[in-house]
Design brief:
Elements (H helix, E strand, L loop, with lengths): L25 E6 L3 E7 L6 E8 L5 E8 L3 H10 L4 H11 L7 H6 L1
Antiparallel strand pairs: 1-2, 2-3, 3-4
Bound molecules: zinc ion.
The site of zinc ion has 8 residues, from loops.
């Protein structure tokens, strides 16, 4: 199954107020073959959002954003010191299974 929807836009919006996040407020925290983690801060409401994006082998991708009270440095240290638990991975994948979008173009420009 390959998703072709052009909805990369949805990854760049504030998880709280829905405003589009400026590029200079996005920080790439982690990027591996099939996983990308971004930290974004909304200029409007100052809410920080963590965005997890998974690319599948078919060239599509899916992702989700969650509000966080951690700044990007805290997130980096968390990512480094404590791997995400299996339960968290499963819950994220369940959420992602309902998402149809493509963020590849957006990510490559970051
Ligand atoms: Zn906001």
């Amino acid at each position: 199954m390959q998703y072709k929807h052009n909805s990369s836009d949805s990854f760049t919006r504030c998880s709280f107020c829905g405003r589009e996040i400026a590029r200079d407020k996005m920080i790439l925290l982690d990027e591996q073959d099939q996983k990308t983690v971004l930290h974004m801060t909304c200029k409007q409401c100052n809410t920080a959002t963590l965005v997890f994006i998974y690319n599948n082998n078919a060239g599509g991708s899916m992702g989700m954003g969650i509000a966080t009270d951690m700044d990007h440095l805290e997130v980096v240290s968390k990512l480094g010191e404590s791997p995400v638990s299996t339960d968290e991975v499963i819950s994220v994948h369940k959420l992602l299974s309902n998402y149809k979008g493509n963020s590849v173009d957006f990510i490559k420009k970051v």
